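Much of our argument rests on the idea that a fold can be written as discrete symbols. This step matters because it turns folding into a mapping between discrete strings. The record that follows shows the chain in one-letter code together with its fold in token form.
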Amino acid sequence: MSIDLWCELGDEFKKEGPVKIYHIDMNIICVARSMLIYKMLLQSLMSETIFEVWYSSCLSEHAVQDLKSALNALLSEPEPLDKNVKELLIHWKNVISSYGNLSIRKA
């Protein structure tokens, strides 16, 4: 993703019109993560939160809240998702929903 973003952000933009991002991958985890990050970018969340979600295995409480919001938005879109990607997003949503109830022993 960092290379993709760098290529996009490193190019000169015209000031009018939308920026289009294309992602092609066979790995459902990469596809789901990219869709999630894209949704977070559309929600204009803090860049620190977006980078935390992309790179970290541990999340701050603020990042967890933003992640929940992005997952809910992504899963409620009318456009159909690939079955495997949707299952993975639902799994992440279920895991992140129990975040407050996790103990070190349980993790």
